[in-house]
């Protein structure tokens, strides 16, 4: 096999393609743009712009410029009065319309002194101006109405004990009225309560009169009237005191027919002179302090304290010493510190002799301290006893002559 002939070394001349071949290799020119392509793009842009504008207008009109919804307002409540109240209101309006108009005087007032002089106001002892509680004034009215419509067992003064007000029985003792669910009658049985009215002889220490013949019996009558008028739901008690304070029962009892009958018997037979002597080794006298202590132990709502004032205590060596009023009010003050309320104590100054200011002030202080009332009552039979003493004195004078 023969080898190809080697190529000659040296410059190689460029090849020149034939003319026909060179034309065939040249790239063809770009075709001209089609008609209508630019107009389609513009239309598309315009349509999108219109859609966006419409959406913006919708959003603005529905959300941003939408009118607020009307607020809900609750309907006003119509207040319609019942038929009876409407008739009453119309009746009141008719009455007011028919009332005459106020008339005014055309006269001129003068500051010159007139021919008629008004008398000066009298001097009033401030001790008599006890504090008034509006509720007590109402109680007076209630008690009066209760007595008017009670059971017919009243005192003859409209004080019958109906006891149907829900506040207890309407009660009264020597014309002091009250309303209470529980009460205590306190009666002084010291010798001075009997001596000055002619029921007791202090020199011989003997009763001159007994039972219904005594002037003291008027107190028993008032106490029995009070008890007879009590309603069955009322609780009550009785205290008599002199050298000691003695309670009829250890506790308050219901005002049943049985208990009221027993109380009447106690008043008629056991409340008398010398029925409360000293006991328990305690000093005697006329011990108002013992009576107050016993009252606080029973703890009623109301109490009536009747005494001739003479509060005394026996001395160790003999004789009597007055009990200061402050000692009595201190008992009440100390009790007020330990309990919510005190019994309402109404005090009756039973005048068996001259009115003593210190005794009257003492009883007023007790009533004022407990929101009670105070009253002075002249002892029954006192005038007759004074006349009898004057006659006896005249007889002695005649004998001496």
Characterization of the model:
The protein is of the alpha/beta class and 401 residues long. The protein has a domain at 169-400: von Willebrand factor, type A domain (Rossmann fold), CATH 3.40.50. It has helices spanning 19-25, 37-64, 83-98, 134-148, 192-195, 217-228, 257-269, 288-298, 325-338, 357-369, 382-400, and strands at residues 169-173, 176-180, 182-188, 200-201, 206-207, 235-241, 245-247, 253-254, 285-286, 302-307, 312-314, 320-322, 344-351, 374-378. The strands form 4 sheets. Strands 3, 6, 7, 8, 10, 13 and 14 form a 7-stranded mixed β-sheet that branches. A 3-stranded antiparallel β-sheet has the order 9-11-12, with no helix packed on it. Strands 1-2 form a two-stranded antiparallel sheet. Helix 9 packs parallel to helix 10 (357-369). It is elongated, with a radius of gyration of 56 Å. Residues 8-13, 16-25 and 126-166 have low confidence and may be disordered.
Topology readout:
Layout: H1 19-25, H2 37-64, H3 83-98, H4 134-148, E1 169-173, E2 176-180, E3 182-188, H5 192-195, E4 200-201, E5 206-207, H6 217-228, E6 235-241, E7 245-247, E8 253-254, H7 257-269, E9 285-286, H8 288-298, E10 302-307, E11 312-314, E12 320-322, H9 325-338, E13 344-351, H10 357-369, E14 374-378, H11 382-400
Parallel strand pairs: 3-6, 3-10, 10-13, 13-14
Antiparallel strand pairs: 1-2, 4-5, 6-7, 6-8, 9-11, 11-12
Question: What attributes characterize this protein structure?
Answer:
401 residues, alpha/beta, Rossmann fold, 7-stranded mixed β-sheet, 11 helices, 38% helix, 15% strand, elongated
